Amino acid sequence: MKQHYPVQGAGLGLRRALCEPLSSVSPEQVQFMEVAPENWIGVGGRYGAALRQYTEKFPTVIHGLSLSIGSPSALDWDLLRAIKQFIAEHSIRCYSEHLSYCSDSGHLYDLMPIPFTEQAVDYVAQRIVQVQDFLGERIAMENVSYYAAPQQEMTEIDFLNAVLERADCHLLLDVNNIYVNSINHNYDPFAFLAALPGERIAYGHIAGHYREAEDLRVDTHGADVSDPVWQLLDVAYKTFGVFPTLLERDFNIPPVAELLAEVEQIKICQQRHSQPDGAVKDIRLDVA
User: Fold this and answer.
1) What is the residue range of 195's domain?
2) What would the DSSP string read from start to end of 130-197?
3) CATH at residue 59
4) How many structural domains compose the chain?
5) Is 126 within a domain?
6) Residue-wise pLDDT tens digits, 133-164
7) Strands 101-103 and 201-206
8) pTM strictly above 0.85
């Protein structure tokens, strides 16, 4: 049975700095876009107008920054009301968030790791269910990068799978985060990938990272995608079939031609796994 995804193909994260540079890009070059709703809710003027043009031109998903699903503080219902309105106003195809937390008494401006415990599974899953009931749709939770594992009683993969199952939510599969975590926490990224519930994938992320040391990678979204991450994406398509995948780039943003070249590489990988014989047709990137 063919899986239904909210979007198709290869996507790109839209940042304010890219509004003008991407203005001539077509839906044939980039099949969908993603924005962080907190950066756009209530924005008017030329940026608000630009956002409207993009969401009318491209299928759009949103990737939240501030839900703080693992926080000990109450859910931010004002934020969720604003997100629900944003989803309706811009015909958003999917809302995703990080399986982490970023607030307690105030905003921490970083993604903190949730303890891998059964208690945390129950707590987080209940909060995801509340969000889904309020929005009237399933959301997708992203497997996040982390650099410490406080109070760990379960493995990362067991914790992630338990939350997805108990909350009955979708998965935003971040391929780069699997690779980064596999180096930092010394596990097999291919075994981790194979243990994921492929039927829950809504879409995927791919991004670059920084090599701090032989045994330390930092998830920066500020570099080109590395060869090991491309290899892991290739295996993900082989394992689960082709799913929509988006390139994240948050800083050190290169010229549009270079961004589109990486988006094109996603397309080529997708096409390789869509061909019955595994062959890849020649694809010419038009960045004019």
Assistant:
1) 10-271
2) HHHHHHTS--EEEP---S--TT--S-HHHHHHHHHHHHT-EEEEEHHHHHHHHHHTT--HHHHHHTS-
3) 3.20.20.150
4) 1
5) yes
6) 999 999 999 999 887 777 789 999 999 999 99
7) unpaired
8) yes
